[in-house]
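dumping this here so i dont lose it
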């Protein structure tokens, strides 16, 4: 693995992880709401 690949991927992975961490609670809440409407 080339160190340059790591340097390019690191910001992308950090941004992705940050976005997932922020969006996940809202996504789960939406999912629970949708599942409750189906019941």
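and the seq i came up w/
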């Amino acid at each position: 693995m080339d160190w340059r690949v790591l340097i390019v991927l690191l910001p992308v992975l950090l941004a992705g992880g940050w976005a997932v961490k922020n969006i996940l609670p809202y996504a789960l809440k939406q999912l629970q709401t949708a599942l409750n409407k189906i019941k």
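Helices lie at 3-38.
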